[in-house]
């Protein structure tokens, strides 16, 4: 009898706990947000992530009826920002904007303190573009063919920058070296802005960079755009050919920027954010501002589709880095 009573009591406790959790979720969904939403940007101000979040921020503030506070947390190949996200309370008020490298790149770059497949989750894809291969203004090159010939004529004297070691910006240079038979030396930076400064000064000669950060410099003729990795030409750089049309289809790659949350982020805020951001991305003013910096709006994909994309990118990135014996810091 006592055993039956104990089992019944235990079952009742489990049911009560479940009902309480469901009640808390419903209450949170109804009252959220009741204060500001914090967005972590794991990169320096002025970079692509910062630019995209500031394009979305005003409309997101209006949609939520609460302030949206953007906090830059650069460093550690993005790890500082990711750790800040994962150490935050699970109350629905801290999110992170990052590119797909949060899963496909960072774990290969540094010894991650998190599991990219179980600790964090993609919420929504907000912007996407290829990278642009740019050259220093002083170089006697105007095309990709010129650039390849220049590197071959200056053996062991040419370098290319990346915005962080191990990222797509680095890996594309590895691939170009392998495919075209080049020997460019890689130089890693902490973000695009300092790398572009050295590119303009000819301290490094080439770089694969994001559209948002390179476009203003290309338009000002401070650097030279030679080719883009997107499947089609960019409307903001219509005269710059794709690698595919130049005979390098393996260099066709698209990066995307998304909102990421801890895997145990509350369901109510998660669905509200997905819904509101999806609406914002349909606004012509937002799409126009993204286009002005060389970005397309994100694709309408489910969280499962985003997760599958991240896993494929992780496997591909890892294979390329392994081929050059890349070691994480």
Question: What is the rounded Rg?
Answer: 22 Å
What is the CATH class of the largest domain?
Alpha Beta
Total number of domains: 2
- Percentage of β-strand residues: 15-25%
Question: Termini separation (Å)?
Answer: 61 Å
Name of the CATH homologous superfamily of the largest domain: Bordetella uptake gene, domain 1
- Spatial order of the strands forming the largest sheet: 2-1-3-10-4-11
Main sheet summary: 6 strands, mixed
The ordered H/E elements are HEHEHEHHEEHEHEHEHEEHHEH
Shape descriptor reads globular
Tell how many strands the DSSP assignment holds: 11
What oligomeric state is this? single chain
How would you characterize this protein structure?
The chain has 329 residues and is α/β, with parallel strands linked by helices. The protein folds into 2 domains: 36-128 and 254-323, Bordetella uptake gene, domain 1 (D-Maltodextrin-Binding Protein, domain 2); 131-251, Periplasmic binding protein-like II (D-Maltodextrin-Binding Protein, domain 2), CATH 3.40.190. Helix content is 45%, strand content 18%. The chain has helices spanning 2-31, 48-64, 79-86, 101-104, 106-109, 144-153, 168-180, 192-200, 211-219, 267-281, 284-292, 303-323, and strands at 37-41, 68-72, 94-99, 120-129, 131-135, 159-162, 185-188, 206-210, 224-228, 255-262, 296-297. The strands form 2 sheets. Strands 2-1-3-10-4-11 form a 6-stranded mixed beta sheet, with helices on both faces. Strands 7-6-8-5-9 form a 5-stranded mixed beta sheet, with helices on both faces. Strand 1 (37-41), helix 2 and strand 2 form a beta-alpha-beta unit. It is globular and about 80 Å long. The termini are far apart. Mean pLDDT is 89; it is low at 17-26.
């Amino acid at each position: 009898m006592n055993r039956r009573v104990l089992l019944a009591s235990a079952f009742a406790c489990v049911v009560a706990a479940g009902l309480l959790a469901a009640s808390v979720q419903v209450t949170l969904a109804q009252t959220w947000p009741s204060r500001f939403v914090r967005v972590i940007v794991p990169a320096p101000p002025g970079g692509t992530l910062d630019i995209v979040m500031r394009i979305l921020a005003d409309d997101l503030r209006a949609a939520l009826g609460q302030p949206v506070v953007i906090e830059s947390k650069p460093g550690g190949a993005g790890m500082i920002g990711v750790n800040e996200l994962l150490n935050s309370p699970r109350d629905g008020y801290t999110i992170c904007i990052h590119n797909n490298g949060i899963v496909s790149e960072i774990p290969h770059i540094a010894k991650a303190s998190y599991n990219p497949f179980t600790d964090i989750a993609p919420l929504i894809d907000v912007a996407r573009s290829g990278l642009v291969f740019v050259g220093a203004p002083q170089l006697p090159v105007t095309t990709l063919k010129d650039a390849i010939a220049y590197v071959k004529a200056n053996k062991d004297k040419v370098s290319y920058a990346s915005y962080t070691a191990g990222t797509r910006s680095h890996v594309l240079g590895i691939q170009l070296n392998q495919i075209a038979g080049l020997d460019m030396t890689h130089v890693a930076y902490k973000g695009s802005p300092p790398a572009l400064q050295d590119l303009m000064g000819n301290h490094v000669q080439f770089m694969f960079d994001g559209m948002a950060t390179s476009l203003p410099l290309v338009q000002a003729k401070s650097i030279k755009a030679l080719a883009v990795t997107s499947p089609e030409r960019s409307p903001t750089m219509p005269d710059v050919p794709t690698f595919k049309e130049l005979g390098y289809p393996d260099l066709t790659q698209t990066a995307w920027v998304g909102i990421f949350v801890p895997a145990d982020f509350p369901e109510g805020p998660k669905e509200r954010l997905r819904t509101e951001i999806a609406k914002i991305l349909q606004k012509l003013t937002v799409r126009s501002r993204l286009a002005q910096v060389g970005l397309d709006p994100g694709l309408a994909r489910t969280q499962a589709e985003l997760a599958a994309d991240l896993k494929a990118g992780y496997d591909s990135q890892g294979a390329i880095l392994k081929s050059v014996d890349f070691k994480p810091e």
